[in-house]
Design goal:
Low-confidence stretches of chain B: none
Largest sheet of chain A: none
Order of helices and strands of chain B: HHHHHHHHEEEEEHEEHEHEEHHEHE
Helix content of chain A: over 70%
Largest sheet of chain B: 6 strands, antiparallel
Largest interface: A-B, 22 and 34 residues
Strand content of chain A: under 5%
Shape of chain A: elongated
Radius of gyration of chain B: 26 Å
Oligomer: heterodimer
Shape of chain B: elongated
Distance between the termini of chain B: 25 Å
Distance between the termini of chain A: 32 Å
Structural class of chain A: mainly alpha
Number of helices of chain B: 14
Strand order of the largest sheet of chain B: 4-3-6-1-2-5
Number of strands of chain A: 0
Chain lengths: 35, 439
């Protein structure tokens, strides 16, 4: 994973970061909903 | 701020209202209502966070760069829009007035039109704001008008959402949430005041004047500005400023331009400006002595503090400006490291500072490679785009393994060169690039 990350273009790394941020936000929403 | 802490801070801020709602300890509501409330709160906090992700705050974008800040701003706006649009449709209406026992409106949605109207207005305005941003080039608005519309539109939406959250929200009606929403909205409003009022006021007190303007090629101008009554600004070679020439600093009429001069050459700033776009079309009317204002420096496209044994500068067209600044600075600092500059243009007439570059290339440490897409007869340099083959002809595997690569040019060139460099084993941390176009 680290090697793949290092070989990604900056645009792809940013897009992946945004997906991860979105996924965390959705997980927080799920945890809040199902508490 | 570096990327990791910045993302953690972003997540903490965006999730704060949800976490506080959780900590209120209220009994859970129907699942659809919880999802709807959660989406609404997340959308609102994301929209408020967008204000400080505008790229105008060095604390935020100083570490990750303006490119990444603005791109993050654009992508998270899409998430916020999806959450906001889904928010009202998930509620299941429970008819009838508020039950006497339901003091915190656990089961009853408000029917007060005033409380709902602000949400409905924001619901309509938010997609318009995002669509306007998507299509800003196609719509043909002047940059400053678009910026004003975007800023005021966002401010109006934030105000409407604050009203809607406090009046119609059930979690948001509780004091910890009231304070949180009010504080977050106040920070968003203050960030706008900072950008639209305080920064221009500072610029008004620190004016510059155009000391030289000359045409370098049919579509490129060289502009120098000198500080008027102050010492100028400290900057690093390769950075850029938002430049306003001949207009009030409060007019928002500014555009980003890379600094082509070297910090060691003195306080004057030099720019290479391409004659396209609303500002650059009016370049012929600018005279020496015209007052100018700058916001900056900004940007992370700089070789300062880098310890790599060699530096590759790869420019396309007007992208030469920051790389010229870096090259000039390295020469003035008598840096012993080898530098290779690849400079791509459409035709020989577009080569800026050709004579000065040739002069610098007489130094054994500097290698200059010109490439043209449309060479005239007799051209002896490289032909074609800056591509993988040209990179292979110019650099050795050892240089790919160790050197710093600094890129500036059209987005398509940046992407293809970055991919080629990564494929040749250049670590992502040794590739610096900056683009001013997105989507």
């Amino acid at each position: 994973m680290t090697d793949r990350w290092r070989r990604m273009t900056q645009q792809r790394r940013l897009a992946l970061t945004v997906w991860i941020v979105n996924a965390i936000v959705v997980l927080v929403l799920l945890a809040f909903t199902l508490r | 701020m570096r990327a990791g802490p910045l993302i953690l801070l972003y997540l903490a801020v965006v999730c704060l209202p949800l976490a506080l709602s959780w900590m209120l300890g209220l009994p859970p509501r129907p699942l659809r209502h919880e999802v709807a409330s959660g989406l609404g709160m997340l959308a609102f906090s994301m929209i408020l966070a967008e204000f400080v992700l505008s790229g105008r705050f060095r604390t935020i974008s100083g570490g990750v760069g303006l490119d990444h800040t603005i791109r993050f701003h654009q992508l998270m706006a899409r998430t916020a829009l999806v959450f906001a649009l889904a928010h009202p449709f998930l509620y299941r209406w429970l008819p009838g007035p508020q039950r006497p026992w339901d003091v915190s409106r656990q089961l009853t949605l408000t029917t007060d039109f005033t409380a709902l109207a602000s949400g409905i207005a924001a619901f309509v305005l938010l997609p318009s704001l995002v669509m306007l941003a998507f299509n800003r080039d196609a719509l043909g608005y002047r940059h400053e008008l678009w910026r004003l519309l975007h800023g005021l539109g966002a401010l109006l939406i934030a105000g409407l959402l604050l009203h809607h959250a406090l009046e119609a929200g059930r979690y948001s009606a509780h004091p910890p949430l009231v304070w949180t929403w009010s504080t977050m909205t106040a920070i968003a409003v203050l960030s706008m005041l900072f950008v639209y009022v305080l920064k221009p006021a500072y610029q008004h007190l620190h004016p510059w004047r155009v000391s030289l303007i000359e045409r370098l090629s049919p579509h490129q101008w060289r502009i120098r500005i000198a500080p008027k009554g102050h010492a100028g600004v400290p900057y690093e070679a390769g950075q850029f400023v938002w430049l306003n020439i001949g207009h009030s600093p409060f007019s928002l009429r500014e555009n980003p331009f890379s600094i082509a001069s070297a910090p060691r050459s003195g306080p004057e700033l030099e720019f290479i400006v391409k004659g396209l776009g609303d500002f650059t079309r009016s370049l012929d009317s600018i005279a020496p002595g015209t007052t100018a204002y700058i916001d900056g420096p900004h940007g992370t496209l700089t070789a300062d503090g880098r310890a790599e044994p060699g530096i590759a500068l790869i420019a396309g067209g007007v992208g030469i400006a920051p790389l010229l600044g870096i090259l000039r600075e390295l020469r003035l600092a008598n840096d012993p490291r080898p530098v290779t500059l690849i400079y791509g243009n459409r035709s020989a007439a577009q080569i800026a500072f050709g004579a000065q570059l040739d002069e610098m290339a007489r130094d054994a440490r500097v290698t200059l490679v010109h490439t043209l897409c449309e060479p005239s007869p007799g051209w002896t340099g490289e032909v074609g785009f800056v591509d993988a083959d040209l990179l292979d002809r110019t650099f050795t595997p050892g240089q790919f393994a160790e050197w710093l690569f600094v890129l500036c040019g059209p987005p398509a060139m940046l992407t293809s060169v970055e991919e080629a460099l990564l494929a040749r084993g250049v670590a992502a941390g040794r590739i610096l690039s900056e683009r001013f176009e997105y989507d």
